[in-house]
Structure formats: structure tokens, C-alpha cells
Amino acid sequence: MADKAPASSSFDVSDRATEEGEDELLYGAESGWVEARTWCDHLASLCSDLIHIPAPDTPCNRCHHPSENWLCLCCKEVLCSRFVNKHMLQHYEQTSDCLALSFSDLSVWCFSCDSYIDAQVLPQLQPVYETAYILKFGEPPPIRNVELQNVAASSTGN
Ligand SMILES: [Zn+2]
Ligand SMILES: [Zn+2]
Ligand SMILES: [Zn+2]
After folding, report:
1. Residue 117: helix, strand or coil by DSSP?
2. Where is the UBP-type domain (predicted)?
3. pLDDT tens, residue by residue, 130-155
4. How far is the CA of 76 from the centre of ligand 1 (A)?
């Protein structure tokens, strides 16, 4: 008697219809994305001028590592990641500047919260996210469907 593994899968995978909007949320939750916080208690330490920021290819201020550095959102220093020489991490430990934007994927990390912060939903972070995006890609970021219900309620104006 050979144990034959059932070759045919009877799972109806296509049953999960991809409805616009909801699909993105489901996908994000199920695929185990690192969750980004939509609030951070340390936004008061943000630099007041985050419109003028260094270019994404600015080398680390300390070791001159050329790419994938972090921008300190408190003093705008560009420092390398924990996978290079940990200069951003050291900067946080020395100064308690805790908010940094990754030039490699434009995510914002708060060292004090020990969490990613969703820059696209926080008004304090949206401008620097957009500026960094434009510097990196040469065009403004696509509009993400955030809080669609709330937006829809006030979408009568133009
Ligand atoms: Zn924080
Ligand atoms: Zn460095
Ligand atoms: Zn700093």
C-alpha cells in the first residue's frame, strides 16, 4: 500500500475574492508585515524644517558609508544603519534623537518606541516622507488609500 499524498487540492483558494480596499488590509495583516504605528509620543522632537533635507544618497556623516543610510529627523544628520556601523543607533544613544527615516525604503523608525511609524498617516511626518520620496524617485508618492471612510466623508470639496 503506497501512501499517496493527495495530489489534488480541494481548497477553493479563489473563494477569497479580492475586493478593492479591503484586500490590502487583509493582505497586510495576513502576511505578517511589520506593523507601523500610527502614533508616536516623540514627534515633538522632530526638526522644525523637514522640507529641506539631505539627498538620499548622502553618505554617513561619520564613516562615509555611501548608501542606505538613515536621516535623523531631529537634527537632519545622515548616519548609517545598524547593519553597517550602527552610527544612527549610536546617535540615538548619545543624543536621544529617536526618529529616523530610512533612505533605503523611506520607512520611519522610532528608537524610543522601538517601532516603525507610519509616516503617511501622520501630518508631522507626511512632508518629509514626500520630500524624501521625490528626492529618491523624482516624482511624488502615489496616494495611498488611508482611512478611506474618513476621507470619503469629507471629499465633497475639491
Ligand atoms: Zn516614538
Ligand atoms: Zn556610519
Ligand atoms: Zn539627530
Report:
1. strand
2. 38-138
3. 999 999 999 999 876 655 545 444 54
4. 17
